[in-house]
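Handout, section B. The chain below has 243 residues.
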Amino acid sequence: MKAEEKKAVILLSGGLDSTTVLAIAKDQGYSCHCLSFSYGQRQTIELERAKAIAKKYHATHLILNSDLGKIGGSALTDSLEVPKAGKNSIGERSEERIPVTYVPGRNTIFLSYAMAWAEVIGAWDIFVGVNAMDYSGYPDCRPQFIDQFERLAKLATKSGVTEEKVFSIQTPLMYLTKKEIIQKGLSLDVDYSLTHSCYDPDEQGHACGLCEACQLRWKGFSEAGSEDPIQYQYGEGELDAKS
């Protein structure tokens, strides 16, 4: 008798973390179904990267529209300035001071779509690259949020109510530093040249090197003793001087 296929839905942004999560799920034997969003973000290079990454991993890939830009309230979807090193206190994080790059409702909305698709295709594991270590203090990246969403999924779905299946939100990066995430990805042969992390790239898609996402990525590769394969707007010496 043929074993039942083990399916998973992967929230794939095209970034370093979500690509590492896809590699982890693939390594664990899952048939991967990747879900990305055009949500009104100021740049769309991450979607192009997500397409390339899903193709590389021979994964099903679905891109949905969810125009959070019409709601605004975030530097990633609105005209607000993206914070840069030397222009603000990027390193100061607390629950009371959530950065302007937080997108209201984003992870709740994305996980809801993932839950819906997962129920339809019979995928009881949903992988997401949230992290509680090297992160920006977003409330929807915390383990408490993930725990509560799992409870919601049990209450809000036919599968959960009938107790046929229970959804599991897999967060393999939750307690890893950026250094450890990169090391894990490299051990799985992740091609990080395909990924995009920057909040404010130039028209050619080169990373700014100065936003918090770039700074965390740069620091992670440095601590992992590996060279970041993407292109930055600044050379290494210039970036070191500005950061």
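Note. The chain has eight helices and five strands. Compare this with the example in section A.
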